[in-house]
Automatic annotation (TrEMBL):
<feature type="transmembrane region" description="Helical">
    <location>
        <begin position="86"/>
        <end position="104"/>
    </location>
</feature>
<protein>
    <recommendedName>
        <fullName>XK-related protein</fullName>
    </recommendedName>
</protein>
<feature type="transmembrane region" description="Helical">
    <location>
        <begin position="197"/>
        <end position="217"/>
    </location>
</feature>
<dbReference type="InterPro" id="IPR018629">
    <property type="entry name" value="XK-rel"/>
</dbReference>
<dbReference type="InterPro" id="IPR051773">
    <property type="entry name" value="XK-related_adapter"/>
</dbReference>
<comment type="similarity">
    <text>Belongs to the XK family.</text>
</comment>
<feature type="transmembrane region" description="Helical">
    <location>
        <begin position="237"/>
        <end position="257"/>
    </location>
</feature>
<keyword id="KW-0812">Transmembrane</keyword>
<feature type="compositionally biased region" description="Polar residues">
    <location>
        <begin position="344"/>
        <end position="363"/>
    </location>
</feature>
<dbReference type="GO" id="GO:0005886">
    <property type="term" value="C:plasma membrane"/>
</dbReference>
<feature type="transmembrane region" description="Helical">
    <location>
        <begin position="269"/>
        <end position="291"/>
    </location>
</feature>
<keyword id="KW-1133">Transmembrane helix</keyword>
<feature type="transmembrane region" description="Helical">
    <location>
        <begin position="154"/>
        <end position="177"/>
    </location>
</feature>
<feature type="region of interest" description="Disordered">
    <location>
        <begin position="334"/>
        <end position="363"/>
    </location>
</feature>
<keyword id="KW-0472">Membrane</keyword>
<dbReference type="Pfam" id="PF09815">
    <property type="entry name" value="XK-related"/>
</dbReference>
């Protein structure tokens, strides 16, 4: 692909192409209106776009199935040996940059797929916000996993297995609940078994991405394009809340069971720094979706409105839970109150009877 892409690029324009295709793209709405623009795309440009899309997908696969395990392993070795060599630090920085670049390409790819009808132009501020967002999020996640695995080597397999299988089977569960027919239009040459293998590999990559960060491309097997094109703020909010709680729990376990290799490390300060770093990643994510997203004008609701609605929903759930608990307490106390009332009424009746007997005897 690389050789063909360079060959097409350097030979473009020298020979007249036999045919061109016309594409229609809509501009971002201005003052409530959006214009449709037609553009002629030659055969060479179409092939270069195909290669660029393939390179983007390959960078995502290489980042999360290659660089992410490599970074985790190198950091784990540094923690156990209690030293960071120059060569290993260079490899870790390169691996981290590779993962961040793959996550950035995943974000841009998701935007272009979701808004394929529009002419999407990503500004440098958006690239900067995505880079900072993914850097803080991925670096914190890898560090938390390494710290936890250094003191609880067996339990880390359970954590990884639960995360991986949960995200791997989640698209299949949604597909089963939707009762949609099995997708048959992925490739014409693929059989039903081949299509199943492709879908399993897709969910495998989706689970690998979600192990380290939020996947901007949400797999939806019931959709013809296999990707959800709706902006689900609730799913993103739940993911980051659960992930923050999980990171805090893993750090707490590390703090409780830390060994002598962390004797010269200020554990509370390290825990605080990691939690703040993850919150910084969430902050840059909010800035990106609120101010720097290239298609923010097409959102039905902004990220701030979505967060407010999520918090209101959580408050309603908490209030409903408290009200049910109060009703349960009242229901538990009510039989006791009725028994006390019955006993008091019996004592009053007995006292009245004694008074009547004393009056009659006096008479």
């Amino acid at each position: 692909r690389c050789v063909e892409a360079f060959y097409i690029y350097f030979h473009a324009g020298r020979v007249e192409e036999p045919y061109v295709s016309i594409t229609k793209k809509r501009q971002m709405p201005k003052d409530g209106y959006s214009e449709e623009i037609e553009k002629e795309v030659g055969q060479a440009e179409g092939k270069l776009c195909t290669h660029r899309s393939a390179f983007s997908r390959a960078s995502v696969i290489q980042a999360f199935l290659g660089s992410a395990p490599q970074l985790t392993l190198q950091l784990y070795i540094c923690v156990l040996q209690q030293e960071v060599t120059a060569a290993r630090s260079v490899f870790m920085v390169l691996s981290l940059l590779s993962i961040v670049y793959g996550a950035l390409r995943c974000n841009i790819l998701a935007i272009r797929i979701k808004y394929d009808d529009y002419d999407v132009r990503v500004k440098p501020a958006a690239y900067l916000c995505i880079f900072m967002w993914r850097s803080f999020e991925i670096a914190t996640r890898v560090t938390v996993l390494v710290l936890f695995s250094s003191v609880l080597q067996i339990w880390i397999f359970l954590v990884v297995l639960v995360n991986f299988l949960g995200f791997c089977f989640y698209p299949w569960i949604l597909f089963w609940l939707s009762k949609s027919p099995f997708p048959e239009n992925i490739e014409k040459e693929l059989s039903r078994v081949g299509t199943t293998i492709v879908l399993c590999l897709l969910t495998f990559l989706y689970a690998g991405i979600n192990m380290f960060c939020w996947s901007a491309v949400q797999v939806e097997l019931s959709d013809p394009d296999l990707i959800s094109k709706s902006q689900n703020w609730y799913r993103m909010t739940v993911y980051y809340i659960v992930r923050l709680m999980e990171n805090a729990f893993l750090l707490l376990m590390w703090y409780i069971y830390k060994t002598d290799i962390y004797l010269y490390v200020c554990a509370p300060l390290l825990v605080l720094q990691l939690l703040i770093s993850y919150c910084m990643g969430i902050f840059f994510m909010l800035v990106f979706y609120q101010f720097c997203h290239p298609c923010k004008k097409l959102f039905s609701s902004s990220i701030s409105e979505a967060l407010l609605s999520c918090f209101k929903l959580l408050c309603l759930i908490c209030q409903h839970h408290k009200s049910t608990m109060l009703r349960g307490k009242v229901a538990v106390k009510s039989p006791e109150n009725t028994d006390e009332a019955r006993s008091s009424s019996k004592t009053i009746d007995s006292q009245n009877g004694n008074i009547q007997q004393s009056v009659s005897s006096n008479a």
